[in-house]
Amino acid sequence: QSSAPSLTSEPDSIMLVPAGDHYTMMDFATAYFRGAQFVQGLKGVAADKSVADLVQHTKVPIQESLLHYSDSELNELAIKNFKTVMRFMGDQPKLKNQTEVECIYEILQLCKEKESLHDEVYCQVIKQVTHNPHHESALHGWLLLHLLTGYFLPSNILMPYATKFLQLAGTDPSSNHHDTAKICQSNLRKNFLYGGRRHLPFPVEMEALLKGRGARRLVVLLPGDIEYLTRIQTFTVAKELLQEICEQMGAGEQEEIQDFVLFATRSNNKMVRPIRSEEYLQDYLLEDKLVTISLRRLLWRTPLHFENRVYTDVHYGQVLWDYLNGRILLSHSKEMETQVGVLAMLQHWAKTQQQSSAPSREELKEYTPKTLEASISPQALQTQVGMLLGAQQPLPPLEAKIQFIEHVMKLPFFGYNAYFVKRVSDATILAPCFFGVNKEEIIVVDRTAQVVSCVILLRELQKMRTLRPVSDHGLPGIELNYGSATSPRTMWLELSQAKEMYHTIVVILEKTELHH
């Protein structure tokens, strides 16, 4: 496949904010449009009018591509696409049974398959929204531009001209499309920084956009059973939503925001995956009602501060759930039994309605980590908690939550994300066992003795990949390549949470690199 010969040499950097009167679409058309050669013989006003005609709305389908293509197939596809653009915008009648959504898909699919036509499609849509006399047609054209800017980048040659066009449209007093032009500029900036969205929108999302509903309602689950209600746009990236939520709970410093991650969970197969900060949320949601988005603190690099009630409740909710459900590795010892008693008392005080009463046997069971239930005597625990309650005044719920968090943070394996691993290739490691991942290392912890049997520093991790199950009933796995160039080592492990662990390590590596 060949592209326009005049667009082959691309500069190393992209001018995203052109200044002055240069880089207008008329300048681009003069230099690169196929029709410009017929204008070159003209002078003055006649020449300007002819160039202006090349870059503004037409009622007549084009007979050849706007840009030069030596490949006749690309020329034909360009002509066909212009007709599809006109049908979508209402400037030409649609084909029998053809819908607006089908028109959009046809245009986006062409861009996905033929990168060399990105500039052509951009130029076609910009042409059709420029001086378009029909309001509804122009609205459809701008919607198309909104999608194009979020999915596909123009070449480095066209980029400054397209950006200048959007800047002018965003400030033109005679235009009704200021807001959309500004959104398109934002889309282009994100697309340049992070790449475009991976998946084309589902029909449900497309139909909502056509009805003018660009925002989608989203409930984000925060730890502690807190629901955060928000609205996301077609091209909202995870870092934007993270910033919004963190600011709402009083954690607005960039350094601390970096410690939080959004997770996507698919309810039908329990697949959990951290969302990287530069990924588009809609790529995870699509039209699937089975996916929920939740927030977790993944790293604990910045000191905690408890001046905000929601911040305290979120941290308490996460630390409590992790403590009770085996996400924090706990060793059984006399010292740990004492800790379980203190933590049970603090959980009891954290409940507003339980300030004056002693916990029942059932409540104490709720306050005990699942991994320690079998090894701690309920009677002994009840006696211990009774003595603790008798020896001191109850704390207010908020203070009890803060003390609970501070107590748990002192536990030896706090800060590690724990995974239960069924099999390991290293014969010296007794499996099943636990793997823990924090900001610096991967540790292997013996299941019964709770001692560390192996440490892999993240900075020594050379390569990593997920492995498919070796049999129908087998588990997926991860292969870790680590060590130095002179002493390379490989380990594979099998666990049901292989993908979650793999992607969590990827996110931690990215965040710690950012942090430094």
TrEMBL record:
<dbReference type="InterPro" id="IPR000299">
    <property type="entry name" value="FERM_domain"/>
</dbReference>
<dbReference type="Pfam" id="PF00784">
    <property type="entry name" value="MyTH4"/>
</dbReference>
<dbReference type="InterPro" id="IPR019748">
    <property type="entry name" value="FERM_central"/>
</dbReference>
<feature type="domain" description="FERM">
    <location>
        <begin position="216"/>
        <end position="516"/>
    </location>
</feature>
<dbReference type="GO" id="GO:0003779">
    <property type="term" value="F:actin binding"/>
</dbReference>
<dbReference type="InterPro" id="IPR035963">
    <property type="entry name" value="FERM_2"/>
</dbReference>
<dbReference type="InterPro" id="IPR000857">
    <property type="entry name" value="MyTH4_dom"/>
</dbReference>
<protein>
    <submittedName>
        <fullName>Unconventional myosin-XV</fullName>
    </submittedName>
</protein>
<keyword id="KW-0009">Actin-binding</keyword>
<keyword id="KW-0677">Repeat</keyword>
<dbReference type="Pfam" id="PF00373">
    <property type="entry name" value="FERM_M"/>
</dbReference>
<feature type="domain" description="MyTH4">
    <location>
        <begin position="57"/>
        <end position="210"/>
    </location>
</feature>
<dbReference type="InterPro" id="IPR019749">
    <property type="entry name" value="Band_41_domain"/>
</dbReference>
<dbReference type="InterPro" id="IPR051567">
    <property type="entry name" value="Unconventional_Myosin_ATPase"/>
</dbReference>
<dbReference type="GO" id="GO:0005737">
    <property type="term" value="C:cytoplasm"/>
</dbReference>
<dbReference type="GO" id="GO:0005856">
    <property type="term" value="C:cytoskeleton"/>
</dbReference>
<comment type="similarity">
    <text>Belongs to the TRAFAC class myosin-kinesin ATPase superfamily. Myosin family.</text>
</comment>
<dbReference type="InterPro" id="IPR038185">
    <property type="entry name" value="MyTH4_dom_sf"/>
</dbReference>
<keyword id="KW-0963">Cytoplasm</keyword>
